[in-house]
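EI: anyone free to look at a 159-residue chain?
SC: sure, send it
EI:
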Amino acid sequence: MEKTEKNKKTGAADSASGRSGKDAGKAVSSPRKSSSQTKGSTPLDYVLWTVFVLGVVGSVGLNYYFSQPETLQPVTTRLPFVIGCIVIAAVCALCTSTGRRFIRFAKASRGELRKVTWPTKDETIKSTVGVAVVAVIVAFMLWVFDVIIGFLVNLITGA
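SC: here you go
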């Protein structure tokens, strides 16, 4: 068999690099990972996760504090504080490397959902009616079995 031009060039490069056999023709990957592929946490991530935990604990603590009889505040007063703590916590969590991976995952999931072929209204109604009919039939059968078994138990025990 003759090699194509591409295979000839690859073979020449492989022989120059000393590779042969199964390794020939494969690209050599660098042992270093790019910064987007690393999964390690930076010191900033630890600070952001600390702020996240403090934000969640703070929202619960503020809500508890403002709901006590001696410091009772209406919901309209304490709600902005609680929501503010939760928003700060969420922003800090999303700014970490894990949060950025979650955002990429959410965007990819949204793209996949756009590719889904959703059923039509007619198909949905037919499927729903079919499931409801089967559920009623199974429920009726279970009731019949319950009545029969109950009758047999009463007959055997004489109750």
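EI: The chain has two domains: 40-116, 118-159.
SC: 👍
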